[in-house]
Amino acid sequence: MIINWYPGHMKKTKELIKDNLKLVDVVIELLDARIPISSKNPDIDNIIGNKPKIIILNKSDLSDSKVLNNWIEYYKKRGIKSIPINSITGEGMNNLIDAVKSAAKEKIDNMKSKGRKVRPIRVMIVGIPNVGKSSLINKLAGKKTAKTGNKPGVTKGKQWIRIRKDLELFDTPGILWPKIEDENVGLNLAFTGAIKDEILDIDEICVKLLEKLSIRYPENLKNRYKLDKLEEDPVINMEYIGKKRGCIKAGGIIDYSKVSKIVLDEFRKGILGRITLESPEDM
Description:
- The model is unreliable at about 145-155 (pLDDT under 50).
- It is built from ten helices and eight strands.
- The protein starts with 7 loop residues before the first helix and ends in a 15-residue tail after the last helix.
- The protein has about 280 residues and is α/β, with parallel strands linked by helices.
């Protein structure tokens, strides 16, 4: 499955990041803790170069805690600071602030040594659409400063936001890369809602998600949908769920679209349990 979804504002965002990077002390790269590989834009590292960087694993409350710890250890071994957070509740925010201060310490110390007035630390947040940037900013600022939504592409403009007296943040819209050729990456982005459902065949996406979950988290599926067993064919499992949930059209035909919306919604909200679709071994 090759996905070509690269709106004009994403090209502008890439240029926006490049143009304003010189003003920034620390880059925060926001990833989805459920899909750290697929939610990483491969262009970002090339764009930010040697700028100090912190990786934030957002939606950690929706991810498998054991696999999440494996990811934190994976980044640690590579000299990268990674912090799990929940941008809705604010869990992990203090750790994030501490990490930003630590990453900018050399720059601040340099200002002091030259007798310059110490300005607020300047941070840029980058990441793909719908990974939780706006929610993170609002939680950091303690008030609603950035427009939020559960659809990719909500944040369209650019803005500097004073988080606190010693921290300023440059917000950027979510940015994907022009052509997603890896089928697994494309599917994972579709599962989590990083790509608009409107441009996808959600029945096909649901089948693929059920196929993956039946391998990685079969008990989650059986428990949630009260299934005695799972078949090898994900379409049959989809039909089982449809019958359990009453997704039946006239003539006893399964309403596949209704089943798809239920399964995708419950996965995205964590109702299916704490699930991570990628582990460091997948690298």
